[in-house]
């Protein structure tokens, strides 16, 4: 008995296969203060761009914000995904001074004038991921998942 020859895959192996439809999952848009305490949290589908969630995130702050003055302006440090005129206009309309790294230019590592604070948001996301129920979304309704996220952020604020 002879072995059957396998059919050869004619496409190259390193080509990616395009998905049909949107991206699965959930995106959390989070605003924190300098210590990492969550101030606002928005849940949306993973196929939404960050800039489209910026206005909702800035408007959903649960703590009353002090008025920005000339002596005490309020700064907002964001990542490169928020670069562009629409995002900058939304931040300036709400009284923030935006700090967005410029696209395409490498960041100078040794010439920092202030502290880099964008990692604080990543740390808060990891604090939220410490709750096993929130690491993977099992809830079908977005309202239930958002309620659990708000409970976790309340516990994080209480522990600070």
Secondary structure layout plus pairing:
Layout: E1 26-32, E2 38-45, H1 50-59, E3 74-77, H2 85-93, E4 96-99, H3 119-129, H4 132-135, H5 142-159
Parallel strand pairs: 3-4
Antiparallel strand pairs: 1-2
Helix pairs in contact: 1-2
What are the defining features of this structure?
single chain; 160 residues; Nucleotidyltransferase, domain 5; two-stranded antiparallel ribbon; 5 helices; 32% helix
Plain-language structure description:
With 160 residues, this protein is of the alpha+beta class. It has a single domain, classed as Nucleotidyltransferase, domain 5, CATH 3.30.420. Helix content is 32%, strand content 14%. It has five helices and four strands, in the order ββαβαβααα. It has helices at residues 50-59, 85-93, 119-129, 132-135, 142-159; strands at residues 26-32, 38-45, 74-77, 96-99. Strands 1-2 form a two-stranded antiparallel ribbon. The longest helix has 18 residues, at 142-159. The termini are far apart.
């Amino acid at each position: 008995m002879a072995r059957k020859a396998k059919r050869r895959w004619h496409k190259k192996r390193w080509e990616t296969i395009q998905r049909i439809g949107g991206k699965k999952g959930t995106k959390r848009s989070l605003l924190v203060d300098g210590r990492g305490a969550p101030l606002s949290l928005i849940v949306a589908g993973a196929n939404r761009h960050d800039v489209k969630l910026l206005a909702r995130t800035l408007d959903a702050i649960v703590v009353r914000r002090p008025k920005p003055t000339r002596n005490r302006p309020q700064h907002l440090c964001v990542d490169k995904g928020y670069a562009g005129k629409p995002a900058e206009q939304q931040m300036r309309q709400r009284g923030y001074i935006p700090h967005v790294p410029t696209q395409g230019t490498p960041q100078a590592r040794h010439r920092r004038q202030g502290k880099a604070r964008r990692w604080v948001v990543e740390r808060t996301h990891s604090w939220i991921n410490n709750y096993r129920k929130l690491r993977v979304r099992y809830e079908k309704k977005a309202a239930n998942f958002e309620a659990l996220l708000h409970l976790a952020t309340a516990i994080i604020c209480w522990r600070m």
